[in-house]
Amino acid sequence: MRRVHLIALTASALLGLFVGGWAYGAPLSFYDSFPGVLGSWVSVDGPFNEHLIRDVGAMYLALAAASIGGLIWRHVLVFRMLGLAWTVFGALHFAYHALHLEHMSLESAIGEMVALGVSLLLGILLLIPDRVDRASGE
């Protein structure tokens, strides 16, 4: 396992636990104040929907659990599958928000795009084969 994979798995697990735990455990607080110190990115995009926010929280927690599994079962196939899942989610999530920035301040829009870009990058990093993978053809 390359250091980049370990970092990406750890960061994706922490991201999923933070976002997912907050959204699932305290949906109204998440709606009103996520991401916290950088402003409020969720409430400016429409009315509160507890079901939707808890579903998003559950999805983030599921991705976090899978990333924790990757840290436990360190195998190239696990890294690629996690990379695929985080990349697809990250690309679609990034694209939606990139097309819906008109209701945000410039600072919030930049912060949101940077945060979502980092999330997407974590998935991409997990897709990068390490030297052993390339040499063995795995």
Structural summary, described in words:
The protein has 138 residues and is an all-alpha fold. Helices cover 75% and strands 3% of the residues. It contains six helices and two strands; from the N terminus they run ααββαααα. The chain has helices spanning 3-25, 27-33, 50-72, 76-98, 106-127, 131-136, and strands at 35-36, 39-40. It has a two-stranded antiparallel sheet with strand order 1-2. The longest helix has 23 residues, at 3-25. The radius of gyration is 16 Å and the shape is globular. The relative contact order is 0.18.
Please specify the SSE layout and strand pairing.
Blueprint: H1 3-25, H2 27-33, E1 35-36, E2 39-40, H3 50-72, H4 76-98, H5 106-127, H6 131-136
Antiparallel strand pairs: 1-2
Helix pairs in contact: 1-2, 1-3, 1-5, 2-3, 3-4, 4-5
